[in-house]
Structure prediction request, 1117 residues.
Amino acid sequence: MNTPIKKTLIALLAIGSTLTVQASELSAEQIINKANQASFYAGDDGRSQARMKIIDDQGREQLRQFTILRRTKEALGDQQMLVFFSRPSDVRGTVFRVEKKIASDDDRWLYLPGLDLLRRISAGDKRTSFVGSHFFYEDVSGRNPREDSFALVEETDEHYVIDATPKDPGSVEFTHYRVWIDKTTFLPMKAEYRDGQDNLYRRVSVAKVETVQGHPTVVRSKVEDLRSGGATLMEFRGVEYDLGLPESIFSERSMRTPPTQYLR
Amino acid sequence: MRSQVIRFATEHPRRVFAAILALVIATAALIPNIQIDTDPENMLAHDDPARVFHNQVKSDFTMYDSIVVGAIADGPDGIFTPRSLLALHTLTSEILKLDGVVPGETLALSTSDNITQGAPGTIRFEYLMRQAPQTQAAAAAIGEAVARLPLLDNTLVSGDGKAAAIYVPLYHKEDSFEVAEQIRALITTLDSDDHYHITGLPVAENQFGVEMFVQMAISAPMAGAMIFALMWFFFRSVPLVVAPMLVAMATVIATMGTLIGMGFTVHIMSSMIAIFLMPIAVVDSVHIMSDFTDRYRAGDDAKAVISEVMEDLFNPMLFTSVTSAVGFYSLMLTPIPPVQIFGAFVGSGILLAFLISVLLVPAYVVRLKPATLDSMQARLHGESEHSGLLARTLPSLGRFAMNKHKALLIGAGVILLASLAGISRIQINDNPVRWFKADHDIRIADEVLNHHFAGTYDAWLVLQDNNALLDSTTRETLAQNLAAVGITLSQEALTPQAIADLLTELDDRAFSAEDDATLDAIEAAVAQLEPLAEQSRRFLDPKVLSWMAGLQADLQQSGLVGKSNALPDIVKTVNRELRSGKPEDFVLPGSAAGVAQTLLQFQSSHRPDDLWHFVSRDYRQSLIWLQLTSGDNQHMNQVVARIDDYLDAHPLPQGLEAHWAGKAYINVIWQDAMVSGMAGSLASAFVIVFIMMALLFRSPLYGLIAMLPLTLTIAFIYGLVGWLGKDYDMPIAVLSALALGLSVDFAIHFLERTRAIHKETGSLPVTLKLMFEEPSRAISRNAIVIALGFTPLLLAPLVPYITVGVLMASIMAVSASVTLLLLPAALTLLQRWALPTPSGKQDATAPQSNSGE
Prediction:
């Protein structure tokens, strides 16, 4: 590589970074799209082993352990998901299946081996507890950016700070939330939710990020219910991307008979 | 010592005034630190096992004390109309914003979840009423949805569909009055024709505290004013009457100031200290003043006369004070802290009143101008002695007592027997809501809401699995398996949390394990731990849940509880909606895994933590919430008895234990303690007072005679309570001490004076004739002053104060009558032993039994 080109590249990069610092070449929507990409669309597909510790204000714990398989059908578009529960052992074999749709409501199914029941979960409120934790269903599958309006309120050295307001306030429990998006990874590092009296009552934050196969990946996060004092810690391990998960395993059959080779 | 005290008081009146004034100012300064406590839980000591368990249950199951707000609609559609529901919705949103309210635990239509079949094969979780419905059909649909949810039906909405409730949990129950006031203000702003009511034990207790304050500020001074007026009526001299009032005020202020200064809270009991002390404090000075005016003649040296009076009265007053104090000190033997404090401070207050009386009254008298004394004396001797009603009637009463002594004693025996029969009928019952009059808002709300709903009173039956998680052989193999992975098993008993931690640890190691051998060892340990964990989660076992459902069904059948709520209800409801939504699927799943997965679904709602009100996170404790329609402890006792019977017929599943908690149950515990404690303290006070009487009169016979008035008074009062069917509650219980103290006071004075006069006259009829002059008037006056002095209490809005007022009057009337009738009758009967004619003096009456005719 010859020196002049190298110099030019460095100069261009310098100009680029200056522009970034001066801000505003990215709109709030663009930042949110990048954040959505970084958090939910890394790789063509992926797998991770999740462990949730649900802690109440008195320090009492519950544990949930599950494996998530995710497959993206189209960039920033529809996705398929399977969630296989392994612990506590009495709920082992419980499976959630989600067909995430951008243009319409997601399709969700549930399989309960102890009752030998496979049920569709009606489209409805996605801001209900995810199996008793402080995470909502929506936190796991990703809230559709189309449901909020965004405004970039501040740029710090590390973060884009964006305020989000729901387009349908009646469908959610918050009046607005603020999210801090990392400028380099575009991962949302913190989100704070406020109620009708503008009280901060809920905080989702990232405690640890690791780069897996080139994708910055959240491996430890936390939700705090600031009213009750409870919190849920989520840990992801064994994260792998681009496993080549076939579309066919995201089916009813896999719910009853898990595709063990992809679950490891 | 006696002479020194009297001399000091008469020689240095200024110093006496200064010292008492200093005491009053010093103690009055402490009164602003007052802390009110109306929590019936404090009837039990902090370390009382029942209370400790109750609070443990509250913490384990995250139970808060709640205000219950109820709305009742009159229209044909009941509460399920768009307008009624909009008002409820608005009110709920506003309540959620109030400080002190636990928003996440507030239970209302708009904060609760519905679980339904969205479409065949589909389940749906959604808020029952996220927004208020716009149409009548939508409103009715909410009613139909609630009727399908057993946990909410008849709890959140009444069975008749007329009423709906909001349960407002509080972080601190002390805030309940303030929060209730704010809710009342919110209700007035609602656009609604529905009737709103607020109830719940914390509100009642807190409201009582507020009204008690008012009561203390009004009733006690009014009683003081009444006593002052009555004394003025009898003595016709303001300066004379001021002295007893000063004694009473100084005593009450010093006692209350000391109580507050020592950091004790003012409980409903201690709020009555002022009311109890005032009559007792007045009694001594009335005796002194009565005697003084009797002896003082114009031109006498007041100092000499008062010294003489004090010499005579010092001993009987000391003894009456000590015996009265003993009566109250005996309350310290009860196991109820507020009653102990009450007894201690009233007892000490009585001794203080004695001290202040013997110092202040003589000092006061010697400082009076001779002219004042003369005019006072003239008025008194001019009027009441010969023309007053008491002066005219008492002598004939004395003759009657002597002439009909046998009939009187037989009559007394009959009354005693009837009273004992009445006592056996006594209903022990207390209920803070009944502290309010029947027309008080709290009582009306209580009645209305308990009519419509399954009940606003809570009792909790807590089932616990106490089986060890690990036997010794399993422990050995587990320890080996863990050792292979490099984990040392703790020697302590294995807890569910320890199992969970071990599984997490093994899981972490599996991720980092390098070789197959380690993985195999991990697998072996996990394979052993997981079944242990599953076995430990006892309340996922359908057999256990089925047993609980059986108990609930029996309770429902008994009609004793409005409703019971427990884990099986949750499991069955979710299971039904997961399957078909039809009633035939309202059953328990067949396996523990099925139950666990059902509950995992329940937790996928907006209120996942509602589960933990019914089962602990380790599934080793479960709570059955019973809703009772009354807070009467008799009601609770019946429930406890019913469960005991059920447990006999249907033993608990192996290794389970059942224990009670909940406010309704806690009330039973302290009331039981109160009854047994009161009986014990009364019995011991009886014995001590008898011994003191026998010592005072240096005669066991006199000791026995002196016990007559108080025995009959106490028996009569409690017999009356039994016959009238009035509930025996805390104020009634402690009045026994007052009855004891005041009756014995009259008896001592009567007997002491009788003996003194008899020593001079040597004749019983002459003695008694003289006794029914001034001494009986003093007793009667005292009785009337105290009895009528407390009539202002009858106007109080709080029932316990009215009870005290009525009983105080009854006690005074009965004990004065018994003293004036029964003591002369008994002395007449027993005169050969009690008052033998001194040799050399001639007896005017035949000592035989025909003396009466």
Remarks:
- Residues 15-23 of chain A have pLDDT under 50 and may be disordered.
- The radius of gyration of chain A is 20 Å.
